[in-house]
Amino acid sequence: MSKEYLTLKEAMSYMGFTTYDSLRKVIKQGLPVIKFGNSKRISKTAIDEFMQAHTVQVHPTKEAVNND
Prior knowledge:
Layout: E1 5-6, H1 8-15, H2 20-28, E2 34-36, E3 39-43, H3 44-53
Antiparallel strand pairs: 1-3, 2-3
């Protein structure tokens, strides 16, 4: 059974982040954090929903043509 509520370190790993700064930026953008006492947790479901809501389609840029 996989757990639903992750520590901040586990959430970073789940999201593929290597620094707390990256996680802090996502939290500032609205990723909900559960706080109780000195402990903080992030729901896997909340992460998945947040990432889905912030998914954008990226179009490749046109490459510059070199006329040498």
